[in-house]
TrEMBL record:
This is phospholipid:diacylglycerol acyltransferase. It comes from Prunus persica. InterPro entries: AB_hydrolase_fold, LACT/PDAT_acylTrfase. The lineage of its organism: Eukaryota, Viridiplantae, Streptophyta, Embryophyta, Tracheophyta. It is an enzyme of class 2 (transferase). The chain crosses the membrane at residues 63-85.
C-alpha cells in the first residue's frame, strides 16, 4: 500500500521528474497481494520514465534541426516567389512599363546602317569544356563559367582545376581544354537574371539588327591578349569577321562597342592588325581607317583599376570584405576546410589578363606617398558637411553632443597601406623598404603546407620576409610592382612578358613595337 501512495504522489504532485524516478526504490513486498500491486506499479513507473526520457531527447535541438529549418525556409520562400511570379500580371495597374529605346527609335524610323561588333570584358564571357580530367565526366561542351554555376557546388575543386591555366606558360594545362562560348549567347547573361549585353542586343534587334550585322567577339578572357591569338587565333578570326561584315553590309564600316577590359583588348587588336607578321596581323597601316567607323567604349579600363591589386595580392575585394564582416572566418575556415581565398588566389594567379588591369602610369598618374589627383575632392557626399580640412582639429556641430575629430586626410596615392594609420601619417615617418635585402625563402622559418592545405606562392616566403614587407608599410602605383614581384614572382615573370604599365619617354623607340606595349595607351601611338 505504501508503494501505491508514493506512486500517487509522484504522478499528481511532482510529475515529470525523471531524477526522482531514478532515486525511487520499491520497497520489498512480503505478502502476495501487495507483491502483485508493487510489480504493476514498477512497470508503470518504468514506462513513465521511458516516456519522459524520450520527451527530453526530442526537446534537444540539434544541428540537423537548424539545417532542416533553413532549407525549409529557403524552399518556402522560393515557392512563394515562384507562385507570385506566375500569378501576377506582367504589368501592374497604374505602373506602365517605360518604352524601350529600341521601340522608340524604331518608331522614329531608324534602321540598321553600320554593322556592330560587341567586345566583352573580363569574367563576363562564357567558357565551356572541350576536354577534361576524369572528375569532369559528363561536362563536355557544358559551361564552366557563365550560366548557372551549378558545378561550383557539385565538384568545386574539379571546377577550379579546369578553370586554372598552366602556371608557367599561361596556356592550357595538360589534358584540359576550356574554350570561349561563341556567338551572342557568350555574354548576353552572366547568370540567370543577371544580364550583361542582353538589353543592348534586344534593343538593337528592335531596330532591325540580327546575326548578319551584329557580332559578339568572344574570347578566353583568362589569357593574355597575345595568347588568345597564339592558342585560339582569336585576333585573326576577329579581323576576318570585321572584313566579312564590311563586305556583306554594302561596304559600311563597323562600329565597335567594347566594355571594361575589352577596351584594352581591342586596343591591342588595332595595333596587332596593322603590324607586320609574324607578330602582327599584316593588315597594313590603313586597315583600321578602312574598316572601323567608330569605337564606343563602355567603362574603359585604359589606366587600370586599383581593385586588381587586392585581387592579385590576397584575392580580396570590397564584396569579400562585406562577407567577412558578416561572418568572419567562414571563407577561410580551417575547421570547415573551405580555404576559399586560397583556392581563388591559386586559380586567378594563373590568369594573365588580371595583370593587364593593374594601374598604369605609376606615380605620375596615381600619385605618390604625399600626393594624388583626388586631393581636395570629397568622394563621400554624406561626410562633406562634417569634415573640413582647415587647421582646426576639433569642431562642434549645432548639436553640442556631437564632437568630431578631423584626422590627417587619407593619402590616396598609397595604393596599399598595411594599417589605417599608415595611410594617413606623413611620408618621412614611413619605414623604407628594400626588397634586395630580404630573403625570399628561409628553410628555418618557411611555412610548411600541411595535409589538405592549398599551396600558393606565399608558402615559399619566410615569416620574417612577410613581416618586413607589411609592417607599417605603404606602397604606391610604382612600388607595388616590386611588392607583387616579391610575393608572386612566377605570376609576374610570366605576365610581364605580355603587359607593360609604364609611360613612354619616346614613342619612336623601336622597343614599343613589341606587343607587350600595345594594350597600354601611355606606351603606344
Amino acid at each position: 500500500m505504501a508503494s501505491i501512495l508514493r506512486f500517487r504522489k509522484l504522478c499528481y504532485v511532482e510529475p515529470c521528474s525523471s531524477l526522482k524516478f531514478q532515486s525511487f526504490e520499491t520497497p520489498k513486498i512480503e505478502n502476495r497481494d501487495e507483491g502483485g500491486v508493487g510489480s504493476k506499479t514498477q512497470n508503470l513507473l518504468e514506462k513513465k520514465q521511458r516516456k519522459n526520457k524520450n520527451k527530453k531527447q526530442h526537446r534537444e535541438w540539434r544541428c540537423i534541426d537548424s539545417c532542416c529549418w533553413v532549407i525549409g525556409y529557403m524552399c518556402t520562400t522560393c515557392w512563394v516567389l515562384l507562385f507570385l511570379y506566375h500569378s501576377l500580371p506582367a504589368t501592374l495597374t497604374g505602373f506602365p512599363v517605360p518604352e524601350s529605346p529600341g521601340t522608340r527609335l524604331k518608331a522614329e524610323g531608324l534602321t540598321p546602317l553600320h554593322p556592330v561588333v560587341l567586345v566583352p570584358g573580363i569574367v563576363t564571357g562564357g567558357l565551356e569544356l572541350w576536354e577534361g580530367r576524369p572528375c569532369a565526366e559528363g561536362l563536355f561542351r557544358k559551361r564552366l563559367w557563365g550560366g548557372g554555376f551549378t558545378e561550383i557546388f557539385k565538384r568545386p575543386l574539379c571546377w577550379l582545376e579546369h578553370l586554372s591555366l598552366h602556371n608557367e606558360t599561361g596556356l592550357d594545362p595538360p589534358g584540359i581544354r576550356v574554350r570561349a562560348v561563341p556567338g551572342l549567347v557568350a555574354a548576353d547573361y552572366f547568370a540567370p537574371g543577371y544580364f550583361v549585353w542582353a538589353v543592348l542586343i534586344e534593343n538593337l534587334a528592335k531596330i532591325g539588327y540580327e546575326g548578319k550585322n551584329m557580332h559578339m567577339a568572344a574570347y578566353d578572357w583568362r589569357l593574355s591578349f597575345q595568347n588568345t591569338e597564339i592558342r585560339d587565333q582569336a585576333l585573326t578570326r576577329l579581323k576576318s569577321k570585321i572584313e566579312l561584315m564590311y563586305v556583306t553590309n554594302g561596304h559600311k564600316k563597323v562600329v565597335v562597342v567594347p566594355h571594361s577590359m575589352g577596351v584594352i583588348y581591342f586596343l591591342h587588336f588595332m595595333k596587332w592588325v596593322e603590324s607586320p607578321p609574324p607578330m602582327g596581323g599584316g593588315g597594313g597601316p590603313s586597315w583600321c581607317a578602312k574598316h572601323i567607323k567608330a569605337i564606343m567604349n563602355i567603362g574603359p579600363a585604359f589606366l587600370g583599376v586599383p581593385k586588381a591589386v587586392s585581387n592579385i595580392f590576397s584575392a580580396e575585394g570590397k564584396d569579400v570584405a562585406y562577407i567577412r564582416a558578416m561572418d568572419p572566418g567562414v571563407l577561410d575556415s580551417e575547421i570547415l576546410r573551405l580555404q576559399t581565398l586560397e583556392h581563388v588566389m591559386r586559380a586567378s594567379r594563373t590568369w594573365d589578363s588580371i595583370v593587364s588591369l593593374l594601374p598604369k602610369g605609376g606615380d605620375a598618374i596615381w600619385g605618390n606617398l604625399d600626393w594624388s589627383p583626388e586631393d581636395g575632392h570629397s568622394c563621400d557626399l554624406a561626410k562633406k558637411g562634417y569634415l573640413q580640412t582647415s587647421g582646426d582639429t576639433n569642431f562642434n556641430n549645432r548639436d553640442e553632443n556631437r564632437v568630431f575629430q578631423v584626422k590627417e586626410p587619407v593619402k590616396y596615392g598609397r595604393i596599399i597601406s598595411f594599417g589605417k594609420e599608415t595611410s594617413q601619417i606623413s611620408s618621412p615617418q614611413l619605414p623604407r623598404h628594400d626588397f634586395k635585402d630580404l630573403p625570399h625563402k628561409d628553410s628555418a622559418t618557411n611555412f610548411t603546407s600541411s595535409c589538405g592545405e592549398v599551396w600558393t606562392e606565399y608558402d615559399e616566403l619566410s615569416r620574417e620576409s612577410i613581416r618586413k614587407i607589411t609592417e607599417n608599410k605603404a606602397y604606391t602605383a610604382q612600388t607595388l610592382f616590386d611588392l607583387l614581384r616579391f610575393v608572386a614572382p612566377k605570376m609576374m615573370q610570366r605576365a610581364e612578358a605580355h603587359f607593360s604599365h609604364g609611360i613612354a619617354d619616346n614613342l619612336d623607340d623601336p622597343k614599343y613595337a613589341h606587343y607587350k606595349y600595345w594594350s597600354n595607351p601611355l606606351e603606344t601611338k
